[in-house]
Design a protein that fits this description.
The structure is a homodimer of 347-residue chains.
Chain A (H helix, E strand, L loop, with lengths): L2 E5 L4 E5 L7 H12 L23 E3 L12 E5 L13 E4 L2 E5 L3 E6 L13 H19 L6 E8 L11 E7 L4 H17 L3 H12 L3 E4 L3 E4 L10 E5 L11 H22 L4 E6 L11 H10 L3 E6 L6 H6 L2 E3 L3 H10 L4
Antiparallel strand pairs in A: 1-2, 1-6, 3-4, 4-7, 5-6, 7-9, 8-9, 8-13, 10-11, 11-12, 12-14, 13-14
Helix pairs in contact in A: 2-5, 3-6
Protein name (chains A, B): Galactose-1-phosphate uridylyltransferase
Enzyme class (chains A, B): transferase
EC number (chains A, B): 2.7.7.12
Chain lengths: 347, 347
């Protein structure tokens, strides 16, 4: 089973993923494959008719037929090499100065669409709707498991940027601990709310509206802008305009509006950057069923946290400077990035 | 001038580097170049005789001759596209919810050796000694500038992993703020010292010694091990065995011992992973001349902080999961990695 190990100096968890265990030679093979593009996929396991080549289906959007049939719109299966295992007991242990938690969690793959060669620039509103509908269903379902402290849907797009399979897919991960990045966000939000009785994210949206130089696109329910302190060139944040702590509570009408927003952003990114590799993450509140010992903390999240989506095209690297400082060097001013994306025009 | 911008939610600085300013098209060119290897270097600016093609020399190890002559052993020049500028006033300003600091700092390139095609696996002790001697001289010199809150020497190795130039080189960066990662480390160290009157790093070294499963190599003055919560496969930490807060205080005899250690590690990494791309960072204490308002904090660093070197081969990616959580997924147990590196044998 995988293990989460805590670094007492960096105050940071690492996942030692034994299911993915690899020997030195495996990395050489991967470097070679990476340099020579995608592995030949004769039978793509994510295409219609190859359902037997994935682990057993967890969820699917389909209007008829039974589990593991073809004719689905989206399909969710366990990751074949999961970083976290769904079975087993959550155990916390210590050894001297070090802490460990068993790698209990979920690691699921969402197949976005049956169309093998679809690129983000050809995603239509219905494809995006189906994907985010599926994200919502998985977050809702996984929230019922009280072992999980955080659930994160995300997408790695572009060969070599977190994926080696070309067939469009995303992921959902459920974790037994609250990750550092979320902890910091929750803490900032809580501190701001305590002092001002206002949501820090709502305050940011208001300032972005007034300033107007970083906004890329907005519709009735959502706003997209290049964040003031963007770590990456053409980085984007997307927020619901109405305060809401959790992505899980989004309605069908909200999903329709979100589908418009995301499709718009994918198309604009393609126009400006020609089908760039990217990562997309949904930052939602931790499931509220987790409340041991800290009832106030979890109760107040509804007021002080505001869910959002972050998208980062992968144009710059992650090397010694970023690793050593935690900073990123971004060679494009967010105001300029926003201007390019505004002028790129709609779908 | 570049700007540091602070994200009030993530509590994290980003560097908006205008000297490196790029337009969307530039990224396409880079993606193309990345896919097709190194740019043709007819006149490598880092080779003997091409000294005029770099900005004016800051420092060099040479036994005779004058500035910008050839016949150097190592040579330090300003980065041609610096993320930080040495000239100008350090200004802190705010705009609503956002904070900004002018991008004052230093961004230097160290040419490790005159030998254009030297790889880490062919670094001998003298080459490593010269490099670290140069690191020390630059840290000492930059520490005199009271505008700088942190100085970090580091190395990106491998085309596409933070560098596009094959001629062996490293970097030193001086920052006007203390980076998040160091802040967390300082805080953990201080908290541990306050409770136990012991250095947390010395405690870790003691536990690693007792456990013995993650130690790779040690000599009289240094110890190298794969850290318990390694974020990356075959990650290594190197510590001086005697407590010392700052790399700047290392003696010539210490440098000789360090050169043995680093050469040993480079060779073993090559034996196990065949010349892997890697990042190396020296984590030293902030310069102690900075003490405004917090005399105790800066005074106690001598006792609670312990300088060290981190090396991470770049075998796994940085994608949505890492970006969204701050965790890394490491598919190799540090105990196994240490075993491979131990068995790889010495130089």
């Amino acid at each position: 089973m995988s293990e989460l190990r805590f670094d007492p100096v960096k105050q940071k968890w690492s996942v030692i993923a034994t299911e993915r265990s690899r020997r030195p030679h495996d990395f050489l093979v991967e470097r070679h494959e990476h340099a020579h593009g995608e592995k030949a996929q004769i039978n793509c396991p994510f295409c219609y008719g190859n359902e037997v080549h994935t682990p057993h289906e967890i969820y699917a959007m389909r209007s008829f037929g039974k589990k593991n049939d073809a004719n689905w719109l989206t399909r969710v299966v366990p990751n074949k090499y999961p970083a976290f295992g769904i079975e087993g007991e959550l155990k916390r242990s210590g050894s001297g100065i070090y802490d460990t938690v068993t790698g209990i969690g979920a690691h699921e793959v969402i197949i976005d669409t049956p169309v093998h060669s679809m690129r983000l620039k050809t995603y239509d509103r219905m494809t995006v709707y189906n994907l985010f509908y599926t994200f919502r269903e998985r977050v809702r379902d996984l929230s019922n498991d009280t072992r999980f402290r955080y659930i994160m849907p995300f997408k790695n797009y572009g060969l070599g940027f977190g994926t080696n399979i070309i067939h469009p897919h995303s992921q959902v991960i459920a974790l037994p601990v609250v990750p550092n990045i979320l902890k910091t966000k929750l803490k900032s939000a809580k501190e701001h709310y305590r002092r001002k009785e206002r949501c820090i994210f709502c305050d940011i949206l208001e300032q972005e509206h007034k300033d107007n130089s970083r906004i890329v696109y907005e519709n009735q329910d959502f706003i997209a802008f290049c964040p003031y302190a963007s770590s990456f060139p053409f980085e984007l944040s997307i927020y619901p305009k109405q305060h809401a702590h959790s992505f899980a509570v989004i309605t069908e009408s909200g999903l329709t509006s979100l589908a418009d927003m995301i499709t718009e952003i994918f198309h604009r990114l393609d126009r400006v950057l020609e089908d760039p590799p990217l990562n997309m993450v949904i930052h939602t509140s931790p499931p509220l069923n987790y409340r041991p010992g800290k009832p106030d903390f979890w109760h107040s999240i509804k007021f002080d946290y505001h869910w959002h989506i972050e998208i980062a095209p992968r144009l710059t690297g992650y090397a010694g400077f970023e690793w050593g400082t935690g900073f990123h060097i971004n060679p494009v001013r967010p105001e300029e990035a926003a201007e390019y994306l505004r002028q790129a025009g709609g779908i």
